[in-house]
Design brief:
With 349 residues, this protein is α/β, with parallel strands linked by helices. Among the domains are: 117-189, no CATH class; 266-345, no CATH class. It has helices at residues 62-69, 97-106, 115-118, 125-136, 142-155, 161-164, 174-186, 204-221, 232-238, 256-261, 266-273, 314-318, and strands spanning 18-31, 34-47, 51-55, 78-87, 90-91, 108-111, 192-196, 224-229, 241-246, 249-255, 323-325, 331-332, 342-345. The model has no long low-confidence stretch (mean pLDDT 91). The structure holds adenosine-5'-triphosphate and magnesium ion.
Length: 349
């Protein structure tokens, strides 16, 4: 852990082969209002040691995407109706449910926004960790598992872990609880760690510490991270690549630099304009995106952002745009790119 007098040095990044490939993932919720298309044809991949950011407004389907990847979308309403989630070459959507208990935690794991959702208030954190670790290290005795728990807590920046291990969740601060949850999520040495808004409940200093910790864990273990947030500032700090989600779809995706230097979907531009910056600190009013996203159970046939887009014309209302790509592999679904970027996929709705 760095103190304010030390200069923080970014850990070195090593990005390897593709670990996770998500193809045409669709998770729909069957409700009394109709079919809510929360995840509607997503395509993305994540490499070893890489961090992919998924960013978008509230309700666009980020958490449902994460839960679908763990096959934990709320039943019976939610159903993953199509797609592939290929992890280390194997489509986990095809695995029998009992096997998922081992895939979750050891192959793919998740840190939730609210640590109390993942912690049990009536057990000490040591007991909870030993129980989880017991699943991964079958046959190891309690003492060995406890030793592992202490090591992982130390890795997640918990001071004096051998003493803290007997504490109950209510005896810890929010930041400390989130570290414990992080420790539990990495205890099975997963290949992919999904972080769903893990720092929203933390104050900014603790948030910065937590983000550094995740980077350090990534540098040490090579874990791939999918970082879900609505905060473009956090994306800039954490991610190598970014996927921008709007109304159940990824509307733009690319290398961080490419998307930040050349945001090409009007929604991404609007998201970036709504981030406060020092340069524009004198501007009295913060930019906000007018209007509301469409209801996911009553989607328009055309571009889903059209009703809020200053550039929308008749074509945008008539048909969802194809996916266009520039020479760097940066993609966006927007009719305005027709003729400028290469068309790589027909519209999927
Ligand atoms: N249990 C549920 N039953 C029915 N609809 C749901 C359920 N959970 C979520 N939804 C709907 O699915 C859509 C996607 O929700 P999701 O939680 O994935 O959004 P999100 O992008 O994570 O938003 P936030 O930033 O607020 O966390 C929303 O329209 C939401 O209303
Ligand atoms: Mg969410």
């Amino acid at each position: 852990m760095t103190t304010s007098s030390e200069v923080y040095k970014e850990p070195e990044k090593k990005i390897g082969n593709v670990v996770l490939e998500v193809r045409d993932l669709r998770t729909y919720l069957y409700t009394k209002w109709g079919v809510t298309k929360a995840v509607d044809g997503l395509n993305f991949e994540v490499r070893e040691g890489e961090t992919l950011g998924i960013v978008g407004e509230s309700g666009c389907g980020k958490s449902m995407t994460a839960l679908s990847m763990l096959r934990l979308a709320p039943k019976p309403a939610a159903r993953t109706v199509s797609g592939q989630i290929i992890l280390d070459g194997e489509d986990i959507l095809q695995r029998p449910e009992p096997e998922m208990r081992f895939i979750r935690g050891q192959k793919i794991s998740m840190i939730l926004q609210d640590p109390m959702t993942s912690l049990n208030p009536v057990y000490s954190i040591g007991n909870q960790m030993v129980e989880a670790l017991g699943m991964y290290y079958q046959g190891e005795d309690n003492k060995g598992l406890k030793g592992r728990a202490v090591d992982i807590l130390r890795k997640m920046g918990v001071a004096a872990p051998e003493r803290r291990i007997i504490d109950y969740p209510h005896q810890m601060s929010g930041g400390m609880k989130q570290r414990v949850v992080g420790a539990m999520a990495i205890s099975g040495t997963p290949r992919v760690l999904i972080c769903d808004e893990p720092t929203t409940a933390l104050d900014v200093t603790i948030q910065a510490q937590y983000l550094r910790l995740l980077k350090q864990v990534q540098a040490d273990t090579g874990v791939s991270i999918i970082f879900i947030t609505h905060d473009m500032g956090v994306v800039a700090k954490m991610c190598d690549r970014v996927a921008v989600m709007y109304a159940g779809k990824i509307v733009e995706q690319g290398e961080l630099r490419s998307v930040f230097n050349n945001p090409s979907h009007p929604y991404t531009k609007a998201l970036m304009a709504s981030v406060p910056s020092m340069e524009h600190a004198h501007v009295e009013k913060l930019y906000s995106i007018e209007g509301q996203p469409p209801a996911l159970f009553d989607l328009p046939v055309g571009c889903r952002f059209a009703n809020r887009c200053e550039f929308a014309d008749a074509k945008c209302l008539e048909a969802y745009p194809p996916m266009f790509q520039d020479e760097d592999g940066h993609t966006a679904d927007c009719w305005r790119l027709e003729g400028q970027w290469k068309k790589v996929a027909e519209a999927t709705t």
